[in-house]
Amino acid sequence: MNNALTAVTQRIVERSHSTRTAYLQRIQRLVERPPGPERMGCANVAHAFAALPSNDKLRVVAHKAPHIGIVSAYNDMLSAHQPYETYPALIRAQAQSRGATVQMAGGVPAMCDGVTQGLPGMELSLFSRDTIAMATAIALTHDVFDAALLLGVCDKIVPGLLIGALHFGHLPCVFVPAGPMGTGLSNTAKSKVRERAAQGLADRAELLQAESAAYHGPGTCTFYGTANSNQMLLEAMGLHVPGAAFVHPHDGLREALTREAVNTVLDITRHGQRFTPIGRLVDERVIVNAMVALLATGGSTNHLIHWVAVARAAGILIDWNDFADLSAATPLLARVYPNGEADVNQFQAAGGPAYVLRELMQCGGLHSDVLTVHADGLTAYGANPVMPEHTLRWQVATVTGDDRVLRPAASPFSPSGGLKLLQGNLGRAVIKTSAVPEDRHIIEAPARVFTTQEGLHQAFKAGELNRDVVVVVRFQGPHANGMPELHKLTPPLAVLQGQGHRVALVTDGRMSGASGKVPAAIHCSPEALAGGPLALVQDGDIIRLDAEAGTLQALVPADVWASRKPATLEPAQAELNGHDLGRELFAGMRRNVRSAEEGAVTWM
Prior knowledge:
Number of domains: 2
Number of strands: 14
Structural class: alpha/beta
Low-confidence stretches: none
Strand order of the largest sheet: 7-8-12-11-10-9-13-14
Largest sheet: 8 strands, mixed
Helix content: 25-40%
Radius of gyration: 24 Å
């Protein structure tokens, strides 16, 4: 193992000793209880299984057969989740063939960030993660299950399901993905139409045609954003059937992988050969493996928030310094849009997660001696599923099919990962460097300050930003308005950069895994509304973003900086924040949420 991997893991273990020990003790107390149908009152048992067919009641109560709960994020608003409509029947049939029983334990909400980008609904996006975690807990709190299958793919859904499952850490759990949609209009071509539209060179009809050609069928969006990063991380954590992440929903292999998920979860229950509760499986090494996989593939910046929260749910404490130190020692092995031209289908065809994980294990970049849901441990995740003669098998991923998409650890795209920590008198922030041209890693320019996305768009259309500029968009943190993604800012900023201007974004909001070639210092912490230094910036201040040195500075004399009073939200904007379209319901979360670097958790 490389020195950074060992050192970072060890300090996480030491930092987490008391919280992790307490968590494992809680799990053990729950593991030692009798099964639900034996310890519950007769009325409780009768209610739990009232709707089951008679033969299933007999199996679970009298024969003490293993009983699986399904928690699903199915809805057909999300293209990625639409395929889940038919999964419960398939899972139930496969479980019955193994002598087990199944109940649909509950559904969790799942919103599409693509639908809500730039709209009021996006202010619920981050908080939907903890809402999903709570909904998962409600589903599992019926407490009659021997294991759980978790059906979810997209941005906040997987972290929410995982946080919820880790609060039931005594249960064996397997995640069941649904796969990406087929390749449509390329992400690069789509982005060019967006930039033309931002300049008024493409009308709404042309833009809608391009967007509809890119997002055109069932499955995950094909760029390497948060949803697809989720799938990469679950592979690295050993929580999928190996290689399940990026198989198309309608590929015959997908049904076989879903059936195998049922077999796998039954194998790790008390009734199986390898009892493996999720809370024991997800230890410090597994969390580090997920972080490394994110960095090696240039994955979503959202996970510098989400995986802090996921780790906390397992009693493990990580921070952005851990990500930064791992990034410095992790080779960048993949270029998938927005880090490159390829989409996730091309990534999968070139070798996919299996190739990445195999290379990382061989170069000592991962902990390979960890528990997974597969009997062969993490080694099994270095192979891709195939179905010769209708039999599910795995084929070792040894050679990449396209070195423009994947490269071996011996000759990576970059010797370091795709994320950097920035620090300075503007606080702490992160930047996704893997998608940014090297000549844009350092930007120094006057600031233009906004408090809304709409303000920036208006200034762009008026020609007020046609110069070197560091755009500051503040009051976008968790306390202020739920920390929405600001992905709609990418087209105008990309246009300015394309015109030759030196441009950067600095914000306490998020930019998502889809953030691209414009340098963006995001998640600035503390946020402006919580007294963070972003509230001190004024128009014209020279801002220096240096991704090479890892600094983010307002080049303002110290005495002048110290004398400033922080800006506040205009009363009209403060009045609008958190109102209408259900946002009032999340006021308690906005009040109680922790900082971005603390995972923006609302439950601690």
